[in-house]
Write a structure and sequence with these properties.
Order of helices and strands: HHHHHHHEEEEEEEEEEEEE
Protein name: XRE family transcriptional regulator
CATH architecture of the largest domain: Sandwich
Number of helices: 7
Strand content: 25-35%
Strand order of the largest sheet: 4-7-2-1-9-12
CATH topology of the largest domain: Immunoglobulin-like
Number of strands: 13
């Protein structure tokens, strides 16, 4: 048993050495905590002895990539963590600086891994109520989305142009999903069938802001048939929006996302990100140019992977 423990310790040390060199920050922090065998409550206790107050929830967010420490107090905590976790001086700070922009206002974890997992669980239940399997018998060939952000920085709504192919006979509907921002009122969110479909049953969940709407086709598709339809959601019930996320159950198909901002409500920077699953850390973060003239930002994925992808933005 001791030999197995030594092997596990060696593997953890090797992983830590690798991520300390290449990052990202959250992976290095998680590996360091794992290598030292400290529960987050003990890490918090050690930080308090260094005169730094950080909640266990914040530490959890940091090591999962759902939040980046950037406030002065948070950066003090990172320097203390280097000592507590027996890391080289400036090792974590260096990764923070390399992973993103220079320290500034700390971006909130608008959609934490927990909220995304909760929404995923709720969506599975709503789909079951509507009698729809996860992919509904359809594969996405192309999806173009247009998101609108209002003068209060709120998510006004989004419109989707969907191109699908049936992989079984008899498909005659699709379940469209809207995930409102924290504080939204799903009872006031409306769905509009805009082209080649009509609205069927609609299910809402107040706790997560998820709305699932049945879109009915006027034809039954055969295996291999393609179909084009367009729909939209109107929201505008939450506070400032910080990102738009789209989930894909299967790989394949092109995805284009454009976010347009109201005049006088432009963010200071935008970026694209991906997640392998709701519980996974965010990866492939890349800065995106914002067109001030058109007040918009966009991304195009020629072939999506299963998981989540989206655009995030920072306000002043």
């Amino acid at each position: 048993m001791r030999h197995g423990t030594q092997h596990a310790d060696a593997a953890a040390a090797a992983e830590l050495e690798t991520v300390l060199r290449g990052g990202p920050f959250h992976a290095a922090l998680r590996a360091a905590i794992t290598a030292r065998g400290l529960p987050l409550q003990r890490v918090q206790h050690h930080l308090s002895r260094h005169g730094v107050r950080v909640g266990v929830t914040s530490l959890s967010y940091w090591q999962q990539g759902a939040r980046r420490p950037q406030r002065p107090e948070s950066l003090r905590a990172v320097r203390a963590l280097e000592e507590i976790l027996q890391l080289p001086e400036e090792s974590l700070i260096r990764l923070l600086a390399r992973d993103g922009e220079a320290p500034g206002p700390e971006r909130p974890a608008v959609r934490s891994y927990r909220s995304l997992m909760d929404a995923s669980d709720v969506l599975d239940k709503l789909r079951a109520e509507l009698g729809s399997p996860h992919d509904g018998g359809l594969h996405t060939l192309g999806l173009h989305e247009h998101v609108r952000i209002g003068a209060r920085r709120e998510l006004l709504g989004h419109e989707s142009h969907h191109i699908v192919r049936a992989h079984k006979d008899g498909v005659d509907r699709f379940v469209a999903v809207h995930h409102g921002d924290p504080g939204c009122d799903p009872d006031r969110t409306t769905v509009h069938a805009l082209e080649n479909c009509r609205t069927g049953r609609v299910r809402r969940h107040r706790g997560t802001g998820v709305v699932a709407a049945e879109l009915l086709f006027d034809t039954r598709l055969h295996t291999g048939d393609t179909f084009l339809f367009r729909y939209g959601f109107e929201d505008g019930t939450a506070d400032a929006s910080h990102e738009y996320v789209r989930g894909f159950g299967h790989a394949g198909g092109q995805y284009a996302l454009q976010v347009r901002f109201a005049e006088g409500a432009l963010p200071v920077r935008c970026h694209r990100f991906a997640q392998h699953s709701a519980a996974a850390p965010r990866v492939d973060r890349r800065e995106l140019p914002l067109s001030e003239h058109h007040r918009s930002v966009h991304m195009v994925e020629p072939r999506v992977r299963s998981g989540l992808v989206g655009i995030g933005w920072d306000w002043e």
